[in-house]
Specification:
Elements lengths: L13 H20 L7 H19 L6 H21 L6 H23 L22 H5 L6 H32 L1
Helix pairs in contact: 2-3, 2-4, 3-6, 4-6
Length: 181
């Protein structure tokens, strides 16, 4: 059986097609002609920060997310500075290469925080995950009686996961700071 598509060239509005193609071409041209990659780590850090704030509300007094929140906020501010740096037009090849490598290194820290619920080498199920999926089980902690054995188990597990989040944020901050110095 052959699938039939209704979006054939004879049915497209030529003006809309032209506009859409111009948008795509300008994006591709920009990506290919920039000396430095346009990675917005401020936006990524803001998303992580918003998720951490929601998790902190859910956890209440049972798990302290203040260090992670502080680091996400700091990374967001550093990301904004990196965005300004990236807009420079006078990049030399060597410094652009160093900047790009560092921006990718930051991405390698942030992307797993946003999209991986377990280990980097384990496959996540093909389901939508919440932001900072390592901490997605915080709701389970909030449903336990404080001081109970079940609460201690969840606190221990979630604190270990939170340590991973905090460490990844710290590594990203150090990389960002090395670019801004």
């Amino acid at each position: 059986m052959v699938a039939h598509c209704e979006d054939t060239l004879d049915k497209l509005d030529p003006e809309n097609l032209r506009r859409d193609c111009q948008v795509y071409v300008s994006l591709i041209y920009d990506a290919c002609s920039r000396k430095v990659m346009a990675l917005n780590h401020a936006a990524g850090a803001a998303e992580i920060s918003a998720a951490l704030e929601a998790y902190a509300l859910t956890a209440g007094e049972q798990l302290d997310l203040s260090k992670a929140l502080e680091r996400a906020g700091k990374l967001q501010a550093l990301g904004a500075q990196l965005n300004k740096l990236a807009d420079r037009k006078d990049w030399q090849d060597g410094e652009a290469k160093k900047f790009n490598q560092a921006m990718l290194a930051i991405a390698h820290e942030l992307i797993p925080l946003s999209y991986v619920s377990g280990d980097l080498f384990e496959q996540d199920l093909a389901v939508n995950l919440p932001a900072v999926p390592l901490l997605k089980d915080i709701w389970r902690l909030s449903e336990t009686k404080p001081g109970s054995p079940e609460a201690f188990e969840w606190q221990t597990l979630l604190k270990r996961r939170l340590n991973k989040v905090e460490f990844a944020l710290l590594k990203a901050i150090r990389i960002a700071e090395s670019l801004i110095e």
